[in-house]
Amino acid sequence: MSAFLQYLITGIARGFLFALLATGFVVIHRVTKVVNFAQGAFAVLGGFIAYSLLRAGVPHGVSEAIAVLAAAAIGLVFGAITILGNMTPVGSLITTIGLAILSEAIAMIAWGTTPLTFSGIGGPDIQVAGVFLQTQYLLLIGVSLVVLVVLWLALDRTYVGKGMTSCASNPYAARLAGINVKRMGLLSFAIGGALGGLGGVLIMPLFPLTYDGDVSLSILGFAAAIVGGLTSPGLALVGGLVFGIAEQFVAGYWSPANESAVALGILLLLLLWQARRHRSEEIA
Amino acid sequence: MRYGAAVALDGVGISVERGEMVALVGANGAGKTTLLNALSGMLVPSAGRISCSGRIAHVPEGRELFSDLNVDDNLRIGAWKATSRDPSPVYELFPQLQPLAKRRAGGLSGGEQQMVAIGRALMAKPDLLAIDELSQGLAPNIVQEISRHLVKLNLETGLAVLLVEQNARLALDLCTRAYVLETGRIVEEGPSSRLREDPAVQRAYLGGHLVS
Description:
A: mainly alpha; B: Rossmann fold
C-alpha cells in the first residue's frame, strides 16, 4: 500500500512538471500555431542556471526566480528566431528542434554531462498515510497548480488572453483589429520559457537533470498537450497527470526501462485518436 | 503597389466624405482588395506612398472572423485600439446578433457572420467603414437586410462607407457616387446615376449574365 501511495504521489509531482511543459506548448501554439520542441530545453537550462546560482551562494528563492526569468528570456530569443522570419509552420517546427539541439550543446559545454541536482527547500519530511514525503513535492505541486490555474484563467477569461488566442485563430483579422501579432507571439514564447524554467527548477531537487534530458521532457510535455488538442490548458493538466502517474507506476511495478516505451505508446494512441476525431469532424 | 512584375495599383486616389456612401467597382483582379489592404495598412507599397486621413475600419473579403471565439469576443477584439469595448451599439444596429452573443462565430450563417464582421469593424470607432464584397456568397434577401442596416447607420450617424463590390448593380443602387477601378487605375468616377447610364460601364459591369 505504501509503495502504491509513493508511486502515486511521485507520479502526481512528475505530472505537474509535464503539465507545466504541456501548457508551454499550448500557450505558444495557441498564439503562433508553432509546435515548439525546444520546450524541454527551457526546463533543463532553467534548472542548470538555478544550480549554478545556488552553488555561487545566491539564496534559495532568489536563484530560482532569476532562473525562471532567464528561461523566459531564452524563450523570447527562441521565439524571435522562430517566428520573426515568416516561416511556414513546418519550418518553424524544424527550427525549434534545431534550437533544442543547440541548447543541448551549450548545456553540455557549460555544465558537463553528469546529472545535476541541488537540494530543494529544507524542512522536515511530511508523513502522509505512512509515506514520507519531501516538502519539495508539495512545493512543486502547489506552485504549479497556482501558476497553471492563473494562466488558464488569464488565457480564457481576460481580454488580452482572448486577443492572444485571436492571433492564431486568424492572424490577418487580428492585425486588422490592430493587434501586434508578432509581439503577441514573442510574449507567448516568453511565457513558454518561464513555464519550462519553472518546471526545471522545481523538479531538479527531486529528479536530477542531464544536459540531454530535454528530449524526453519535450516528448512527454507534447504528449500531455495533445490530450487537449494543443489548445486547452485544462486538458493539458489532465494529460500531464496521466503521463506522470503512468510513468511512475510502470517504473515502480514493472521496470524503469519501460517508462518511455509506455509513454510513447500512449502518445501514439492519442495521436491516432485525435486524427480520427479530426476526420469525423471534417465529415460532419 | 506591385506584386512581382505586376503593378496592382498605380496613382489611385479616392475620397469619401463624412455622410457619404461610395462604391468602388471593378472586375476580378482590378486591384480593389489590394487598395483596401493598402489603405488599412496591411500591405506596404513597393514604391510611392499611401496617405489617408481618418481612421479606416476594413471588413475583409470572406469576413475573416475568429471562428473559435464567440460573437461577443469577436466584437470586443475589434475594439483592441478603441477606448470602449462595449458591444451594445452593434447589437442595437443588428438586433439579430444579440441572442447569438455567446455562440461560436464559426457556426453562424453567412449573413450573421457578415454582420459580426461589420460589427467588429465598427467597434474600432472608424471614420470610414470599408467593406470588401458585402454580397459575396449571400442570398439576395440577406444582402438587402444588411444593406438596409448600413444605409440607416450612414444616415443616422454620418459614418462614411466605402463599398467595394464586384456586384456593380448592388453597389450603384446603394451608393450615391462610385469609382470604377480597372487594372490598378481609376477609369471612371462620378454619381451612380450617371455611371449606371454609361455605355462602357454597362457593357463591362451591368450587362447580362456578368451581374448576379
